[in-house]
TrEMBL record:
PANTHER family per UniProt: DISEASE RESISTANCE PROTEIN RGA3, PLANT BROAD-SPECTRUM MILDEW RESISTANCE PROTEIN RPW8
Naturally occurring in which organism (per UniProt): Acer yangbiense
Entries under InterPro entries matching the protein: At4g27190-like_LRR, LRR_dom_sf
Protein name: Disease resistance protein At4g27190-like leucine-rich repeats domain-containing protein
Coiled coil residues, start to end: none
Gene3D superfamilies (UniProt xref): Ribonuclease Inhibitor
Signal peptide stretch: none
A single BP term in Gene Ontology: defense response
Keywords: Plant defense
Top-rank taxon, per record: Eukaryota
Amino acid sequence: MSVLNIPEFGNQFGQACSLQTGPETPFLSRLSALVIKDCNDLKSLQGIMEHSAYLGRLVIKGCDSLTSIAEGQLPSSLKRLEISSCKNLQCLLNGSEDSNHSNASLVEYLYVSQCPALESLSSRVQLSETLQHLEIQHCKRLKTLGQLAETLKHLETKTCHKLESLSSSGQLPNSLEHLSIYDCGNLSSTGQLPASLQHLEIKNCSKLTSLSSGQLPAPLKYLKISSCQSLISIADSLQNLSNLREIDIFFCPSLDSFPADGLPNSNLTILSIQYCYKLVALPSFMHTLNSLKELNILNNINLVSLSSFPQQGFPSSLTSLSITGLQFYQVMKRLHKLTSLISLHISGCQDAMSFPEETKAIILPTCLTRLTLDNFVMLESLSPKGFRNLTSLEYLSISKCPALTSLPKEGLLSSILELHISECSQLKDYCLRNRERHKSEMANIPYVKIDGKFIH
């Protein structure tokens, strides 16, 4: 037998508070995985673990009498430990510094979730000498993770509201490659980030003011920061991040600038900056980002002047651009230079009455295959002349344009394969009235959806 799932284990084995290995349970010594679920009488793992020489995975869930696990109770074969919904668990591994080294935990993967009384992961100096993956979720009394193993590669914390520090020493293991922190509102600093870090993701940490006082780790490939209301700066410089592929900054309302020397231009392919209300300028030298493919600049309300945008424009390597109306007006005259652009998403052009606006000399790139217009509250018409040169356009989406009454009189291009219309009441009425006409603007479009309903 390799796997055993035992619900209500404590009830099945009588009123004794600990699990017992007796004649009736000879199978336990042959298990490679054990799941113990909803055992309200379980207080200790004494006994069963002593005879589980082949146990590689242990799952404990909903055992409310369990307050700690004595470190010596875990077999050396155990590599994966998952504990959840144990409401009275206070200390995960209970041991001492001078405990027998041969009895120390050799767990490599540790997952802990929904343990509201948990205050400490280990009473020892170090949790496990072999730990590689640590994931802690919804442990509302936990203030620190303690001293982490130097073997740790993946660390994720989520919804630990009292967490003040990731490491008691203030330093994370040099081996760490992936760090994710979500909903830790009391965390004001990540500590010194390790030199091996490749993935950094932080979300909803309201006290965090900065990621680094100097530079971020050079191997970093992914940087994602969202809903950090107090974040003022990312780092003094990002130029050392030659491996960086993606930057995603979302709702950091206190962030007012990027490092003066701009972004690394070697491997960066995705740049997304959204809802950063104090940001007054985009990163410098953006035209040099020759690997950049996707750029999203949305709802950054202070990016309104021409000086907010790089004088040399965006890199010609862009294939996808999403931009809010106020920012769109600053780049619209340079759009035709984006000779690789295939997807354009524009939202929030509050005063545009036609699109593209011929009076403002907007020339859309002829290579476009996807175009999305969203929240043009004054838009009354689509310019036939502006669409005429879009011979590659296959996808058109129009949403939240309440004043738009019709499609171009000369008809849409025969190249369009999909048309999506939503929350455009007048345009919807027009299309539904004319959809049966053989020469209607929609007649040659294979796929049409209006307000989520398939038309043809």
